[in-house]
C-alpha cells in the first residue's frame, strides 16, 4: 500500500511553477481564551417569549463561541493551536498538579484541538450539572496578573515558537484590580506578554446596568495590534466593540463577529515594487484572499498500538545505483530530450529561469475593463495592497490609482514576476471596491486585484460547430423572461451563501467518527438549486418556452438538417431527446409582461431601424468596422472579412428583415 | 494532435555553401543550419515516435544511397545520412559530425529530390502495398549554385502529387530573389538565376512553398504553439428545475471543453552523479558528452529514488520515536490532532454522494459581477455534437443572457461522486460558434475575510473620519494619476492588418516567456554541446510586453512627470539602526500611552528570570547601554538555553530553546553586538555535537541548522567580522 505514494525514480517534479503559498500556511497561530468566571458572567438573561431573545449567560455564550471557533479552525487551519483558560473559578487546576496559579482552571490545554476537546466542551455546554461544578466562581476573584502570567507560561511551554500567539480575554469587569499594587503587577505582566510576542485581544462585555470603560484599567494592558508580520497592514482596530446582550444580536453572534473581525493576514504572499511608469515605483504587498479550501489529505495511521496514531513520514533521496543516501545539493536537474538527457549546471539553471529580470509588477498600460473577458482567466486573483516599508508615499499613489481605475472602469495591464524563480506572467490589475454589510463591517477590502492572464499558448480551440440552428428572437425572449425571474438576491453571487457541501460533509462525518458518534446520513447541501422557487417563480414561463421551442425547432431545426446533409446522414445520438416537458404541453397562459423587443434595448449598438436609416441615407460605408462588427455580432452574423463584406452582410440582413 | 509525419531534409553541402556572403558572419551553410537545426530539434523535443525524419546531403564529397535506389548512376554526390525514423539525440550528434561544406560543387538537387521521394515511398507504404496515411514533406535548402538536371522533373512532380495528401515541398533558397518580400540579390551569376527559376517553377508545379532563408529564419523567432485535441471534461445535461419531480424543466445536452489551460514548460527530473565513476567534479561535465555515441549520458547519472521512513511516538518511551513498518499502516485522516482510522471498506463514507449534473442555480447581473471572483481556468460549454435540438436550446440561452446582460450561476458535478463546484457561465458569441464560458466560483470557506483599512479615508481610534492625510491623495495627485492613466491607453494603440486602431498586447500576441525560454535552451544545447559557450539571451518577442511601448512612454513623458511630482514618493533609505534608537523612550507603549518603566522606577539592572525568559531578556537589554550589562544578560540567557537543552526529555524543550535562541540572536543583531552571539553559538554547536548537554543532542543541532540560527555574518550586521562563506560553512 505504501508503494502507491512512492514516486518513480527521476520523475519527481521540482519547479516552483505557481506562486507557492505553502509558506503562507506555515505561519501558525495559537489562541488562548481566558474567560472570566464571575457571578455576573454566569447570570442568565431574564426569560422571554421572543424567539430571538438572549438565552445564554455571557460565559456560556463565550464557550459556545470558543466551540464554534475550535470546529471551524480544525477545518480551516488544522495546524493551529487553541486552548481555554477559565479564571476566577473556585477550582484550581492547570492539568500539571501545580497550584501556583490560584483560581485558574485550564479547561482545554493549548494544543492542536483533538476530538476529545470538542466533545468535552460540548458536554460542558449541554450538561448542566457538570457545568455547575466547573463554572463556579470563587469567593475571591483571581488576580488578573496571575492570569496573565499563567498565559505567559502556557504560551512559553506549549507554543514556544509560534509566530502568532493571541490571548482572547473575555470579561465584563472593567476594573478587576482596584489596589494600586495589583494594578502595577498586572501592567508589568501584560508587558511581559507583549515582550514575549503575544497579543492581548480584549473582548469586553457590558453588564446590563453598567457599560465597559476601557480607560479604567485595560488601556494600560492592551498594546496597539502588532501582527506577526511587522509589514502587514494594520487594519484591525486595537479595540473591539463592547458586546452587550439584548441588542437585537445575540451575545454569541456579537462575539463571533468580533473574533472574525480580528482575522488578519498573517503574512504577505509577496512584497514587490510596483512600477506605475518608468522611474515611478511604489511598494505593494500581495495577499491570498480567495483560495480553494481543501479537506485534509488522507494520512497513514499506525494501528499497532492501543490508540490509532498518526504516522510521520520523512523522505530521503537515494542514488539508484549504489543505494547511497544523497543530499539535496548533489541532485542534478536533467531535461529529457530525444531519448537522452540534457543537463545544465545550477548556475545555468538560474540563468535560464531568471533571464526575465527582477521580481516586479510593472504596468505596461491601461485598457477599459471591458477588454477583460471572463474566458481570459487561468487562476485565482491575488489581492494587492500598498506598503510604506520601501517607498514613502506608496499608499496615496496606490489610492489615487485605485480610485481612478474604479471611476473610469479601467484596468492596468502588467508584467508580473512574483519571485526570483517565478515564471513571468501578464496580469490584469483591476480595482476592488470596499464593501460593507448592513452592520458596517467590511466585507470586501479596498485595493487592487491581480488577475493572471493566459498566454496565446494557454488558449484552446472550441470544437467546431455547425452554423445552424441558431435561436430566433422569439425563443430568446422566452428564455429571457426566465432569466429575469430567476435572479439571485440583489443580482449578485454571494460566496457566504454557499458553503462547500463536500467539505462540510467530510468534516461532519470525520467529527462523528472521531467522537465515535452516530454518522449522519443526510448531507445539508446549500448549493442545490431551490427547485420549489424555480417552479413557483417561472414554471409557467418554462412551459411557454418549451412550446415555443417546439414550434421554432420545426422550422429552424429542419432547415438546419437539410442545409448540411453530411451531418444529417450521421447517426443521431441516442440521447438526443432534449426537453422532457415538451412532450406534454400545458394549456398556454399568456405571459403578463410583454417580452421586450431586443433591438430596443439600446445596449448592443445600433438598432435595426437605426441601421436601416443609415443605409437609406447611403452612409453605411461611413460607419467604422467596429460599429459594423458589433452590429453584426449582436445579431449572430459572421464578422469576418473586409469592410466591404461587412457592409454587404448588413444590407443582406436588413433586406431579410424587410427594412 | 498531429498524425504521422515523414519529413526529408535535403541539404545542399556544396563548396559554395561554405562561403560567407553579403556581409554575414556565418557561412551560408551555418546560416541555413540555424533553420534546419531549429526544425529538427523541435521535432525531436516532441518525443513523438510517429514523426519520422531523414536528412539527405547533396553535392557531398562521396555518395551513399543506403540502397534506396536501384541504380547508382545519376545519383553521384548524394549522401543519405539517415533512414526515415524517429530522431533521437545521438542522431543529432551524428548529423553534426557530417554537415560541413564539401570539396565539390558537383551533384544535382533534383536527383536528391528523387531519392527523397523514393525514401518516403518505401517508408510510408503499408505491407499491402498501399500508401499509409502520412503527412509527407520534403524540405530543400540550397543556394542554387549547383547544376540541375531537369530531365525527370515532370515525372517527379507527378509522383509527388500522387499522394493523398500530396507531398508538401518546401524550398528555402539562400539569397533567392523573391517578389513577395521584394528581395533581389545584386550581381547574381547566370547559373543561379536559371536555377532559381527552375526550382521555383518546380515547387509551384508541386503546389509547394517557396521562401527565402532570411524570411524563414526571421520567423523562427515567433514561438510555435502546440495544438491540442479538445477532450471533453463533462458530457451530460444542463438543466433548469427539478428534472425528477417537476414538469416544468429545461434540459439541454451539453459538453464541456477546456477554453484556457496553462501550458507548462518541460520539467526537469532529478539525477545524481554516479559515484563509482569518480564523482561530479571529474567526469561529470556540465552538459552532454560530445560525439561518443556508445556511452549515453545516462552512464554518468543515476536515477534518484525516494526512500520513506515512517515513525510514530513510542507509547512506552515518551519523547522517543520508533520506526514502523509500512505493512502495519492503514489509511486515515487527521481531525485536529486526533487520528481517525478509516478502514478500506469504509473509505467512501467521507465522500459526498453526487450525480453528474450541471444545474442552473440562478442568474446574476453582469454589471455587478466581481471579476476577481473566478478562481480557475475556463471551459466552454457547448451543445452536444450533432444534436440540433441542444444547439438551438443552448443558443437561446446564450443569446438571452447576452441580451439581458446576465450571467448564469450553476452547480457542476463533472462525474459521479465528484465534489460539486459552483460556476459562473457567461455567453460567448463568435461568428463561427456560440458557447457558454465557465469558471469556478469560491465557496464560503474559500474566501478569507481579512480586513484592510480604507483607501479613500482614514479612521481614527475615536471613530473620526479624516479625508486629508499623507496617505490619501490630494486633488493634484488624483488629477495627475487620472491624466496619466488616460494617456497610457492601450486599447487602440496597435494597428490591425487594415491599419485600423486596435488593442495592444492582445492575448493572442503574448507568448509564455518561460515555456519558450526553456524549450529554446534545450534545443540550443542539443546542438551546442560545448559547455564553455555562453547561453543565448531569450528572443526579444518573449520580453516584448515586459515594458510599456517605448513611443508611448515618450508621448506620455509630460503626464508622468506631473504624476511623479504630485506623488512625491521617496525611497526608504537602508535601515539606520543602532543602539541609539533603542532607548527606553522608544519602547512600545500600551493604548493609554503609559510609561511602564517610569512606573517601575526605571530599574538599571534586570535579572534574567528562567520563568519569564524572553521578556526578562528583552527588558534587561532595554534597561542598559552598558556593554558589560549586555554581556551579562547574554551570558545568563545562554546559561538558560543550555539548561533547557540539558534538562530536555527527548526533544520536549527544544522548541523553547529555539525560541530563546531566535530572540537572543535577533536582539544582539539589532544591538550590533554580533560577536557576543557568535562566540556563544560556536561553543553551543560544539557542545551539542560533542554530547556535552545531557546526551546525544545532535537533533537539536539539526534544528538550529534548519532554523538558520547560525553565525551572524557581515550581510546581516555590518559590525560582524564573519564572512558570508564562513557563516555558510558553519552549518556544515
TrEMBL record, chain A:
The keyword Hydrolase belongs to this UniProt entry's keyword annotation: yes
Keywords of this entry: ATP-binding, Chromosome, DNA damage, DNA recombination, DNA repair, DNA-binding, Helicase, Hydrolase, Nucleotide-binding, Nucleus, Telomere
Biased composition regions of type Basic and acidic residues, renumbered to the chain: 1-10
SMART domains to which the protein is assigned, alphabetical: Ku78 (SM00559), SAP (SM00513)
Listed InterPro entries: DNA_bd_Ku70/Ku80, Ku70, Ku70_bridge/pillars_dom_sf, KU70_core_dom, Ku_C, Ku_N, SAP_dom, SAP_dom_sf
Domain SAP: 620-654
GO cellular component: a single term: Ku70:Ku80 complex
Active site residues of this protein: 25 (schiff-base intermediate with dna)
Compartment annotation: Chromosome, Telomere; Nucleus
Alphabetical list of SUPFAM superfamilies matching this protein: SAP domain, SPOC domain-like, vWA-like
Any matching Pfam family: Ku_C
Main location: nucleus
Acetylation in keyword set: no
Record-stated family: Belongs to the ku70 family.
Family matches, as NCBIfam families: ku70 (TIGR00578)
Described purpose of this protein according to its UniProt entry: Single-stranded DNA-dependent ATP-dependent helicase. Involved in non-homologous end joining (NHEJ) DNA double strand break repair. DNA-binding is sequence-independent but has a high affinity to nicks in double-stranded DNA and to the ends of duplex DNA. Binds to naturally occurring chromosomal ends, and therefore provides chromosomal end protection. Required also for telomere recombination to repair telomeric ends in the absence of telomerase. KU70, of the KU70/KU80 heterodimer, binds to the stem loop of TLC1, the RNA component of telomerase. Involved in telomere maintenance.
The name this protein goes by in its record: ATP-dependent DNA helicase II subunit 1
TrEMBL record, chain B:
Molecular function GO labels: ATP binding; damaged DNA binding; DNA helicase activity; double-stranded DNA binding; hydrolase activity; telomeric DNA binding
A GO CC term attached to the entry: Ku70:Ku80 complex
Listed GO biological process terms: DNA recombination; double-strand break repair via nonhomologous end joining; telomere maintenance
Basic residues bias locations: 572-582
Reaction catalysed by this enzyme: ATP + H2O = ADP + phosphate + H(+)
Highest taxon above the source species: Eukaryota
InterPro entries: DNA_bd_Ku70/Ku80, Ku80, Ku_C_sf, Ku_N, Ku_PK_bind, SPOC-like_C_dom_sf, VWF_A, vWFA_dom_sf
SMART domains: Ku78
Record's function text: Single-stranded DNA-dependent ATP-dependent helicase. Involved in non-homologous end joining (NHEJ) DNA double strand break repair. DNA-binding is sequence-independent but has a high affinity to nicks in double-stranded DNA and to the ends of duplex DNA. Binds to naturally occurring chromosomal ends, and therefore provides chromosomal end protection. Required also for telomere recombination to repair telomeric ends in the absence of telomerase. KU70, of the KU70/KU80 heterodimer, binds to the stem loop of TLC1, the RNA component of telomerase. Involved in telomere maintenance.
Protein name: ATP-dependent DNA helicase II subunit 2
Record organism: Bimuria novae-zelandiae CBS 107.79
Amino acid at each position: 500500500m505504501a508503494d502507491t505514494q512512492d514516486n518513480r525514480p527521476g520523475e519527481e517534479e521540482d519547479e516552483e511553477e505557481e506562486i507557492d503559498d505553502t509558506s503562507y500556511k506555515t505561519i501558525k497561530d495559537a489562541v488562548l481564551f481566558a474567560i472570566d468566571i464571575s457571578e455576573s458572567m454566569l447570570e442568565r438573561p431574564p426569560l422571554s417569549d421572543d424567539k430571538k431573545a438572549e438565552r445564554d449567560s455571557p460565559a456560556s455564550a463565550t464557550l459556545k463561541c470558543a466551540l464554534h471557533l475550535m470546529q471551524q479552525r480544525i477545518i480551516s487551519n488544522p495546524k493551529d493551536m487553541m486552548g481555554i483558560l477559565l479564571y476566577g473559578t473556585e477550582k484550581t487546576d492547570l492539568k500539571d498538579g501545580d497550584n501556583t496559579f490560584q483560581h485558574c482552571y485550564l479547561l482545554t490545554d493549548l494544543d492542536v484541538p483533538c476530538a476529545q476537546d470538542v466533545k468535552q466542551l460540548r458536554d460542558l455546554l449541554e450538561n448542566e450539572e457538570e457545568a455547575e461544578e466547573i463554572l463556579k466562581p470563587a469567593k475571591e476573584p483571581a488576580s488578573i496578573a496571575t492570569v496573565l502570567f499563567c498565559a505567559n507560561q502556557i504560551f512559553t511551554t506549549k507554543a514556544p515558537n509560534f509566530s502568532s500567539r493571541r490571548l482572547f480575554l473575555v470579561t465584563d469587569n472593567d476594573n478587576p484590580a482596584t489596589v494600586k499594587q495589583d494594578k502595577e503587577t498586572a501592567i508589568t505582566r501584560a508587558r511581559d506578554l507583549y515582550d514575549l510576542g503575544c497579543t492581548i485581544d480584549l473582548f469586553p462585555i457590558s453588564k446590563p446596568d453598567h457599560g465597559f470603560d476601557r480607560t479604567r484599567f485595560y488601556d494600560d494592558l492592551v498594546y496597539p495590534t502588532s501582527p506577526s508580520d511587522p509589514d502587514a497592514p494594520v487594519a484591525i482596530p486595537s479595540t473591539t466593540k463592547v458586546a452587550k446582550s439584548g441588542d437585537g444580536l445575540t451575545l454569541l453572534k456579537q462575539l463571533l463577529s468580533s473574533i472574525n473581525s480580528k482575522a488578519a493576514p498573517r503574512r504577505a504572499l509577496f512584497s514587490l515594487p510596483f512600477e506605475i511608469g518608468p522611474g515611478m515605483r511604489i511598494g505593494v504587498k500581495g495577499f491570498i484572499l480567495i483560495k480553494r479550501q481543501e479537506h485534509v489529505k488522507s494520512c497513514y495511521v499506525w494501528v499497532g498500538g492501543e490508540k490509532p496514531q498518526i504516522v510521520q513520514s520523512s523522505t530521503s533521496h537515494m542514488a539508484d545505483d549504489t543505494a547511497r543516501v544523497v543530499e539535496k545539493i548533489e541532485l542534478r536537474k536533467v531535461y529529457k530530450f530525444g531519448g537522452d538527457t540534457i543537463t545544465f549546471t545550477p548556475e545555468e539553471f538560474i540563468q535560464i529561469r531568471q533571464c526575465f529580470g527582477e521580481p516586479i509588477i510593472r504596468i505596461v498600460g491601461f485598457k477599459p475593463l471591458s477588454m477583460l473577458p471572463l474566458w481570459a482567466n487561468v487562476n485565482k486573483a491575488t489581492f494587492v495592497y500598498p506598503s510604506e516599508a520601501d517607498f514613502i508615499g506608496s499608499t496615496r499613489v496606490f489610492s489615487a490609482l485605485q480610485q481612478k481605475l474604479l471611476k473610469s472602469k479601467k484596468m492596468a495591464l502588467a508584467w508580473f514576476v512574483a519571485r526570483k524563480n517565478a515564471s513571468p506572467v501578464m496580469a490584469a490589475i483591476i480595482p476592488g471596491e470596499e464593501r460593507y454589510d448592513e452592520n458596517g463591517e467590511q466585507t470586501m477590502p479596498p485595493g487592487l486585484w491581480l488577475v493572471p492572464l493566459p498566454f496565446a499558448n494557454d488558449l484552446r480551440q472550441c470544437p467546431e460547430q455547425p452554423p445552424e440552428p441558431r435561436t430566433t428572437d422569439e425563443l430568446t425572449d422566452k428564455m429571457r423572461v426566465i432569466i429575469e425571474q430567476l435572479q439571485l438576491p440583489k443580482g449578485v453571487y454571494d460566496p457566504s451563501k454557499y458553503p462547500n457541501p463536500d467539505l462540510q460533509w467530510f468534516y461532519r462525518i470525520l467529527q462523528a467518527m472521531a467522537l465515535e458518534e452516530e454518522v449522519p446520513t443526510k448531507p445539508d447541501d446549500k448549493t442545490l438549486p431551490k427547485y420549489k422557487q424555480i417552479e413557483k417563480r417561472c414554471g409557467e414561463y418554462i412551459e411557454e418556452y418549451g412550446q415555443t421551442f417546439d414550434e421554432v425547432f420545426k422550422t429552424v431545426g429542419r432547415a438546419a438538417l437539410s442545409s448540411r446533409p453530411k451531418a444529417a446522414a450521421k447517426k443521431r445520438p441516442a440521447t438526443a431527446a432534449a426537453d422532457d416537458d415538451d412532450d406534454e404541453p400545458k394549456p398556454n397562459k399568456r405571459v403578463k409582461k410583454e417580452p421586450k423587443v431586443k433591438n430596443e434595448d439600446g445596449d448592443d449598438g445600433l438598432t435595426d431601424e437605426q441601421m436601416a436609416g443609415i443605409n437609406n441615407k447611403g452612409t453605411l460605408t461611413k460607419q467604422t468596422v467596429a460599429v459594423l462588427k458589433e452590429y453584426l455580432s449582436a445579431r449572430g452574423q459572421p464578422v469576418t472579412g473586409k469592410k466591404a463584406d461587412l457592409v454587404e452582410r448588413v444590407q443582406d440582413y436588413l433586406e431579410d428583415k424587410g427594412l | 494532435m498531429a498524425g504521422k509525419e515523414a519529413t526529408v531534409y535535403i541539404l545542399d553541402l556544396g563548396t559554395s555553401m561554405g562561403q560567407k556572403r553579403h556581409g554575414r558572419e556565418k557561412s551560408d551553410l551555418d546560416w541555413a543550419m540555424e533553420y534546419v537545426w531549429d526544425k529538427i530539434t523541435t521535432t525531436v523535443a516532441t518525443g513523438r515516435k510517429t514523426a519520422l525524419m531523414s536528412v539527405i546531403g547533396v553535392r557531398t564529397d562521396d555518395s551513399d544511397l543506403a540502397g534506396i535506389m536501384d541504380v547508382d548512376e545519376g545519383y553521384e554526390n548524394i549522401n543519405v545520412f539517415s533512414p526515415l525514423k524517429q530522431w533521437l539525440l545521438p542522431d543529432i550528434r551524428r548529423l553534426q559530425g557530417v554537415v560541413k561544406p564539401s570539396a565539390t560543387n558537383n551533384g544535382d538537387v533534383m536527383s536528391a529530390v528523387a531519392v527523397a521521394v523514393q525514401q518516403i515511398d518505401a517508408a510510408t507504404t503499408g505491407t499491402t502495398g498501399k500508401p499509409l496515411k502520412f503527412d509527407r514533406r520534403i524540405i530543400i535548402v540550397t543556394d542554387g549554385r549547383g547544376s540541375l538536371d531537369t530531365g525527370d522533373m515532370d515525372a517527379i512532380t507527378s509522383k509527388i502529387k500522387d499522394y493523398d495528401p500530396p507531398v508538401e515541398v518546401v524550398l528555402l533558397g539562400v539569397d533567392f530573389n523573391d517578389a513577395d518580400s521584394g528581395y533581389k540579390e545584386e550581381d547574381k551569376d547566370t547559373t543561379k538565376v536559371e536555377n532559381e527559376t527552375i526550382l521555383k517553377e518546380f515547387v509551384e508545379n508541386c503546389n509547394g512553398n517557396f521562401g527565402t532563408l532570411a524570411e524563414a529564419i526571421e520567423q523562427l523567432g515567433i514561438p510555435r504553439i502546440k495544438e491540442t485535441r479538445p477532450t471533453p471534461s463533462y458530457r451530460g445535461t444542463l438543466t433548469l428545475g427539478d428534472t425528477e419531480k417537476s414538469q416544468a424543466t429545461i434540459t439541454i445536452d451539453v459538453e464541456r471543453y477546456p477554453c484556457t489551460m496553462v501550458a507548462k514548460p518541460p520539467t526537469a527530473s532529478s539525477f545524481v552523479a554516479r559515484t563509482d565513476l569518480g564523482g561530479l567534479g571529474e567526469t561529470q561535465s556540465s552538459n552532454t558528452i560530445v560525439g561518443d555515441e556508445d556511452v549515453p549520458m545516462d552512464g554518468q547519472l543515476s536515477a534518484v529514488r525516494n526512500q520513506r521512513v515512517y515513525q510514530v511516538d513510542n507509547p512506552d518511551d515518551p519523547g522517543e520515536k520508533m520506526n514502523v513498518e509500512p505493512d502495519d499502516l492503514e489509511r486515515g485522516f487527521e481531525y485536529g490532532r486526533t487520528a481517525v482510522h478509516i478502514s478500506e471498506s469504509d473509505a467512501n463514507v467521507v465522500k459526498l454522494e453526487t450525480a453528474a449534473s450541471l444545474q442552473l442555480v440562478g442568474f446574476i447581473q453582469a454589471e455587478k459581477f466581481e471579476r476577481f471572483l473566478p478562481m480557475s481556468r475556463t471551459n466552454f460549454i457547448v451543445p452536444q455534437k450533432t444534436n440540433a435540438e441542444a444547439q438551438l436550446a443552448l443558443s437561446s440561452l446564450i443569446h438571452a443572457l447576452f441580451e439581458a446582460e446576465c450571467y448564469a450561476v450553476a452547480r457542476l458535478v463533472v462525474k459521479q461522486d465528484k465534489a460539486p463546484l459552483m460556476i459562473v457561465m457567461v455567453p460567448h458569441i463568435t461568428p463561427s460558434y456560440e458557447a457558454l464560458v465557465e469558471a469556478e466560483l469560491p465557496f464560503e470557506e474559500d474566501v478569507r475575510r481579512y480586513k484592510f483599512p480604507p483607501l479613500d479615508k482614514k479612521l481614527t481610534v475615536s471613530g473620526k473620519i479624516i479625508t486629508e492625510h499623507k496617505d490619501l491623495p490630494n486633488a493634484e495627485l488624483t488629477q495627475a494619476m487620472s491624466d496619466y492613466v488616460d494617456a497610457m491607453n492601450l486599447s487602440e494603440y496597435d494597428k490591425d492588418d487594415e491599419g485600423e486602431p486596435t488593442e495592444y498586447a492582445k492575448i493572442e500576441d503574448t507568448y509564455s516567456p518561460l515555456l519558450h525560454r526553456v524549450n529554446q535552451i534545450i534545443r540550443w544545447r542539443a546542438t551546442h554541446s560545448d559547455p564553455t559557450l555562453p547561453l543565448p539571451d531569450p528572443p526579444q518577442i518573449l520580453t516584448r510586453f515586459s515594458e510599456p511601448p517605448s513611443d508611448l512612454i515618450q508621448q506620455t513623458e509630460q503626464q508622468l512627470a506631473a504624476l511623479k511630482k504630485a506623488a512625491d514618493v521617496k525611497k526608504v533609505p537602508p535601515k539606520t539602526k543602532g543602539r541609539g534608537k533603542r532607548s527606553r523612550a522608544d519602547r512600545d507603549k500600551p493604548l493609554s500611552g503609559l510609561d511602564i518603566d517610569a512606573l517601575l522606577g526605571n530599574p538599571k539592572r534586570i535579572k534574567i528570570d528562567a520563568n519569564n525568559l524572553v521578556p526578562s531578556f528583552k527588558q534587561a537589554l532595554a534597561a542598559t547601554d552598558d556593554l558589560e550589562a549586555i554581556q551579562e544578560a547574554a551570558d545568563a540567557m545562554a546559561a538558560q538555553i543550555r539548561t533547557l537543552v540539558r534538562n530536555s526529555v527527548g526533544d520536549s524543550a527544544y522548541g523553547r530553546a529555539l525560541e530563546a535562541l531566535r530572540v537572543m540572536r535577533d536582539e544582539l543583531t539589532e544591538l550590533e553586538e554580533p560577536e557576543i552571539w557568535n562566540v556563544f553559538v560556536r561553543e553551543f554547536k560544539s557542545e551539542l555535537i560533542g554530547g556535552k548537554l545531557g546526551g546525544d543532542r545532535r537533533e537539536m543541532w539539526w534544528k538550529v541548522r534548519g532554523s538558520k540560527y547560525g553565525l551572524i555574518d557581515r550581510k546581516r550586521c555590518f559590525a560582524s567580522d564573519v564572512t558570508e562563506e564562513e557563516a555558510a560553512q558553519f552549518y556544515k
